[in-house]
Amino acid sequence: MPALERAGAGAHELADTYARVVRNGTPAGPRPPFTELALLSTCNRVELYAVARAKIHEARSELIRPFLAAGLEPAGRTPSPGTFYTLEGADAATHLCRVAAGLDSMVLGEPQIAGQVARAVRAAWHENGGAPTLAALAQAAQRAGRRARAETGVARGPAGVSAVAVRVAVEAMGGLAGRNIVVLGAGKIGRLACRALRAAAGEDGRITVVNRTRSRAEALASGVGGRVADLAALEALLAEADVVLASTTSPVPLIDVDLATRVSARRRGRPLLVLDLAVPRDVAPGVGAIDGMRLLDLDDLRSRLDHLLADRRTHVPAVEAIVAEEIHAWQRMGDAEVTGAIDALYRTAERARRGEVARFLAELGEPDEETRARVEHITRSIVRRLLHEPAARIRGEPEPERRRAYAQLALTLFGLDQPAATDGPPSP
Predict the structure, then answer these.
(1) Active-site hit among 2, 3, 12, 43
(2) What's the whole-model pTM score?
(3) Where are the alpha helices (DSSP H) in 365-425?
(4) How far, CA to CA in Å, does 412 sit from each of 34, 90, 345?
(5) Lowest mean pLDDT among 196-200, 317-321, 330-334
(6) Residues with Cβ < 8 Å from 274, sequence gap 6 or more?
(7) Does the annotation mark 97 as catalytic?
(8) Whether 84 contacts 71, CB under 8 Å
(9) pLDDT digits (tens, 9 = 90+) for 75-110
(10) Residue 327: which residues within 8 A CB-CB, separation 6 or more?
(11) Is residue 107 within 8 Å of 313, Cβ to Cβ?
(12) Which of 185, 187, 181 minimizes the C-alpha distance to 207?
């Protein structure tokens, strides 16, 4: 199993474990070192985002454990394709905004990633019992993505993974008109691929959709004028197909070497183009070595993208500027949260002070004005002295994310309602 798949399995297990702790209460042993946790898993990335409780190094150690277990080695703090890295604070926030804007995608500018970010944080919101900090960050990331697509040309032209796969199929087959095409999987990539395949194949092209859930296959097939077949008929379908595009979420390959060998014998040397866009793989790597089988996976497609993306790259500086603006706005919002939290502490302390002063003065009977003034002065002085140092330390923390965490911790310690960074999770 490739390292990305192993890391994904470990990250899912960590997220599931944390969700169970949130639902059922903390089991015997130490609490998880984070208060919010979101998993972003796509065809070419597995990322965990978390809000640490207090000790950042403990949260970091827990989050990187699935990646180390998968045999990945840290590549420093600079994100680059195919690496494992850790980021904190504003660096992590900037990275998520770049991801949502399509700057860190296999296909520069691809729009689907913004929705995946929103769904990841929406899931975290429900599983964590709320995720206000990550939700606020995700909304900033979504704004960056929307602005990047609306204000620049970074997403101009068909260059998504499915569109590139169809273009490769057209080039390899000399056109798809009249071809027999099998689409394995009715998810997002399958839907996008079907539309692109129908446009490339025209009315004469035959598209068959195969999916474990037949109703989803029927809905997709009806939209592109295709037909539906069951997974049990896969061998017969492959024996007659010209092109297969696979993009399911199956944990094991649906087209293994044994199946492909039987299909090859039935085809008697007639070539079959197989495009595997799934993670984990839908097609075993050894299939490409079988007579008549031409297998292209995501790595192969990645090498074919450069010439399609030259124009998009010219818009990267403009998108980076948008990301910087949204991060600045997000940080300002965080500062407003901190200010609101500190104000809440002072207001609560002032209410408590007034109540105690009123009770004390009532016990004295009718004290003179000088006594009243002295009591007011000394109690106000005590409140200011007690809260000055913690408020100054919160405001003086240079890391925005940690500054907000300190403010929320102070509210928790004083039994106050924590101000939410957002009214709810982001919309997908």
Answers:
(1) 43
(2) 0.60
(3) 369-396, 400-413
(4) 15, 24, 11
(5) 330-334
(6) 243, 244, 246, 255, 283, 287, 288, 293, 294, 295, 296
(7) no
(8) no
(9) 765 555 557 888 988 899 999 999 999 998 877 888
(10) 90, 93, 94, 97, 140
(11) no
(12) 181
